[in-house]
Write a structure and sequence with these properties.
Strands 3-2-1-4-5-6 form a six-stranded parallel β-sheet, with helices on both faces. Helices cover 39% and strands 13% of the residues. It is globular, with a radius of gyration of 17 Å. With 224 residues, the chain is α/β, with parallel strands linked by helices. The chain has one domain: Rossmann fold, CATH 3.40.50.720.
Length: 224
């Protein structure tokens, strides 16, 4: 279905305080029929970096800010409980795993710490988010008629990157970012696994490459 027909009852976006995440929120708020609930998560909602998000929330009562560290399983569980309380009996329609990190280093400078930290945020984060929010996604799917999979029913959207493509060496000369590339290649496989495991529950799972976007993470090269 095209964007005009998209009807999302509730959505959660991680890494929502800036860049792509903030852009996605603004898009949802501008929809002809905006979601009843928009959950915006970031590590520290009180930080200066979340000021724009706070301004947005003060204007839109359907926008709820929740503190969430995607590298921390306890933080994820707490956030899922909070979202569940807000939703009452209804489920979560759309989970957008957007939070990501990159350490701009050459291959020879990469360390175990770099790889571990990048994987924890970019790959383990979306895995744990999927697990924690599965009951709410299932609930949304059950409450939506029809057998097809769609973003209007229940979906997990993992924001990936062409940097994780094995076939296309996009941007190699500008940024080797090996830990990042590996984490995104792994995220693509995770998405495939989620789609196979959660299809029976009526949950759509896809990985998206957002294209060249000028954000804090992307910087001048627009790497996302």
């Amino acid at each position: 279905s095209n964007m005009g027909e998209l009807s999302v009852r509730s959505v959660l976006v991680t890494g929502a305080n800036r860049g792509l995440g903030l852009g996605l929120l603004q898009h949802f708020l501008r929809m002809p029929k905006p979601p009843q609930w928009i959950f915006a998560t970031c590590r520290d909602p009180k930080a200066q970096r979340a000021q724009e998000l706070q301004n947005l929330a003060s204007k839109h009562p359907n926008l709820v800010i929740i503190a969430l560290e995607v590298a921390n399983p306890a933080s994820i569980k707490a956030a899922a409980a909070k979202v569940g309380e807000h939703l009452g009996g209804s489920g979560l329609t759309l989970l957008i795993n957007n939070a990501g990190m990159v350490k701009p280093k050459m291959l020879n400078e990469e360390t175990l710490e770099d790889l571990t930290e990048t994987y924890t945020t970019n790959t383990a984060g979306p895995l744990l988010m999927g697990q924690a929010f599965l009951p709410l996604l299932k609930k949304a799917a059950q409450g939506s008629p029809g057998s097809g999979l769609s973003c209007s029913k229940a979906a997990i959207i993992n924001i990936s990157s062409i940097g994780g493509s094995i076939a296309c060496p996009f941007g190699w000369d500008q940024m080797q970012v090996v830990s990042y590339r590996c984490s995104k290649a792994a995220l693509n496989m995770l998405t495939k696994c989620q789609s196979l495991a959660y299809r029976a529950n009526g949950i759509l799972c896809v990985a998206l490459h957002p294209g060249w976007v000028q954000t804090d993470l992307g910087g001048a090269t627009g790497y996302t």
